[in-house]
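User: I'm putting together a small comparison set for a docking exercise, and I want a reference complex before I start. The sequence is below, and the ligand is LGQLAAA5. Could you produce the 3D structure with the ligand included, as structure tokens?
Assistant: Of course. I'll restate your input first, then give the structure tokens for the complex.
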Amino acid sequence: MDVKVKICGLSKPADVEAVAKAGAAYAGFVFFPKSPRNVSVEQARDLAVLAPVGLAKVALVVNPDNALLDEICGRVAIDILQLHGEESPERVAEIRSRYGLPVMKAVGVATAEDLGQLPAYERVCDQILVDAKAPKGADLPGGNGLAFDWRLIAGRRWSRPWMLAGGLTPDNVARAVELTGATQVDVSSGVESAPGQKNAGLIAEFVSAAQSAGAIPEL
Ligand SMILES: O=C(O)c1ccccc1N[C@@H]1O[C@H](COP(=O)(O)O)[C@@H](O)[C@H]1O
């Protein structure tokens, strides 16, 4: 199956190199000071130029104001904005129109009720990112290595491209793809040796496992 992979939370040149070498489609940079993966605008600018053609650079922001977005979009060669906070559909539409970049909106899921918010976001964004809902009081709205019950979205019809996230690892990504039908997956903590420390071996294993999902084993 042709599964596109996003590796999120890159902070070093070696991370970009590992992601490109593994054949991922997206490289994510986190602009959120509480995250162990947080990067400055300067760091992201220097990392983004290392990405080869074909590797899309994603800026992950959480309830961003225009000043932060102006700085990121003005100084970093970003291809996609990932909104990972409580941005309303109106704010998503405003950001999309103001910056002229594709917007991926993250929606946290824990129960079937959480799926009710999807249509409003599908109307205004370019892609939906379906992530596990962060526990109440968590420091991070994502990047917690938590999965949700994938059966909640199995067989769902989507009106936008979408990506599956939340607690994915090299060991469970193939099963997640097979169960949900996802053609795009996103991972952060599942390819780290410690919080914020990406591991090139795990990145390669993850991409290979995601891309082999659904493949019929050779006899
Ligand atoms: O990775 C982070 O530090 C992060 C911080 C704030 C919001 C989102 C964050 N990461 C995103 O969360 C999901 C799932 O991550 P994980 O694989 O469960 O660790 C993914 O979309 C990351 O882009």
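The pocket of LGQLAAA5 is lined by residues 8-9, 28, 30, 32, 35, 37, 60, 62, 84, 129, 131, 140-146, 165-168, 186-190 (CB under 6 Å). Strands lie at 4-8, 26-31, 56-61, 80-83, 103-109, 127-132, 162-164, 184-187, 192-194, 197-198.
User: Thanks, that's exactly what I needed.
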